[in-house]
Amino acid sequence: MPDFNAIQDALVHCDKDKLLGLVNSELARETLAADILNQGLIAGMDIVGGKMENGDMFIPEVLMSAQAMGECVAILKPLLGEGESVGGSNVIIGTVKGDLHDIGKNLVGMMLESAGMTVHNIGVDIGPEDFVTQIKEKDARIVCLSTLLTTTMPMMKQTIDAIVEAGLRDQVKIMVGGAPVTQAFADEIGADGFAPDAGSASRLAKTLVN
Ligand code: B1M
Question: What is the pTM of this model?
């Protein structure tokens, strides 16, 4: 039986060495990478979020957990295949201005890459004008906007408005996501699609380009 609780516990206690050891031993036991990610790491990060909210964990500790998770995700990355591939689609993915969260956005980028798309991960705290520049430079067909903060959700609308103003709206499909984002919000701001997690983001991207 996989021990996802031990993975969650090591993540919550910011114990990177233990966490890496646990992830590697689950892989050696042939536990699926997607299960380690979803039931171990993402579930553990939810506990971290609750503790952060209650004041039981502070920013430096949360950062250490996030960094440890990032290293584990890098190990899992080659094993997170997503079925049939869709080549040739240039994707820009970034976290909108004012927001520095990047783990979920990076996971979405990885899933799109494993679906065969060319992904340009342009980072965090990206302003509308930088998205516009990158769409032009990379000749993008899909733009993915991520945010985890309710305070930066309006920045998604501002980014879409800037893409419209730059005359690029017909060139790109725009996907939005991140914990506070909903389908209703995506509709309200004029996005082409919303996905609640990395797996569905990859499926949505395939639908949008076909
Ligand atoms: Co922050 N933080 N944080 N944080 N942080 C949250 C988001 C929060 C919910 C914690 C809490 O209070 N419970 C809260 C937001 C509250 C709100 O706005 N409603 C919060 C806050 C308040 C803050 C600060 C303001 C704290 C402060 O300074 N007082 C600050 C903001 C800094 C800033 O951005 N300007 C801050 C800082 C940080 C750290 C730097 C310490 C660190 C980030 C490190 C990093 O990313 N490199 C951090 C972390 C780690 C979290 C939590 C604990 C975990 C986030 C995470 O990585 N989850 C988070 C609480 C939580 O989410 N439970 C929290 C795992 C990740 C796999 O999930 O990112 O949701 P997620 O991504 C999912 C889906 O959302 C979706 O797919 C992903 C994979 O399945 N998805 C998309 C994401 N993007 C998508 C795009 C798509 C489609 C799907 O299409 C385009």
Answer: 0.89
Pocket of ligand 1 (CB under 6 A): 42, 45-46, 48-49, 52-53, 59, 62-63, 66, 98-105, 107-108, 144-146, 148-151, 175-180, 195, 197-198, 201
Q: What is the CATH number of the domain that holds 67?
A: 1.10.1240.10
Long-range contacts of 127-134 (CB under 8 A, 24+ apart): 127/97, 127/159, 128/97, 128/155, 128/158, 128/159, 128/161, 128/162, 128/163, 129/162, 130/94, 131/92, 131/94, 131/159, 131/162, 131/163, 132/162, 132/163, 132/166, 132/168, 134/92, 134/94
| 157 and 205 both lie in a single domain | yes
Pair 100, 156 in one domain: yes
178-210 pLDDT tens trace: 999 999 999 999 999 999 988 789 889 989 987
